[in-house]
Amino acid sequence: MSTFGTHFRVTTFGESHCKGVGCIIDGCPPGLALTEDDIQPQLTRRRPGQSNLTTPRDEKDRVTILSGTEFGYTLGTPIGLTVPNQDQRPHDYSETDLYPRPSHADWTYLLKYGLKASSGGGRASARETVGK
């Protein structure tokens, strides 16, 4: 499931090697101060490529607020946030696209969605956490 919450809901979207990832936030009251500058420090903290322990992908993780705010304040309508994937490498997975990879979520993804995302784990990628 890609939606979490009841009164305050977050729906995430996107995959590791598509054009981008993001989320829709529904249930935020109007009048709260919110800009990209408020969100960006948290995305910068989780950004890949900052350590030799993480993926070598170099994603800038620059957030854009698409909807739900005006002049830096929430409108009480759904807030759309998107982060482009700039370092997409789907071809890196061409030799592993037939079988589930060990220690990855490929098998459970196959059971849940009925197909295996051929590049980077699809929704089971760490990129999906951008919206959380």
UniProtKB/TrEMBL annotation:
Superkingdom as given in the UniProt entry: Eukaryota
Span list, region Disordered: 39-61, 77-98
GO molecular function: chorismate synthase activity; FMN binding
Pathway annotation from the record: Metabolic intermediate biosynthesis; chorismate biosynthesis; chorismate from D-erythrose 4-phosphate and phosphoenolpyruvate: step 7/7
GO cellular component term, pick one: cytosol
GO biological process: amino acid biosynthetic process; aromatic amino acid family biosynthetic process; chorismate biosynthetic process
Protein name (Swiss-Prot/TrEMBL): chorismate synthase
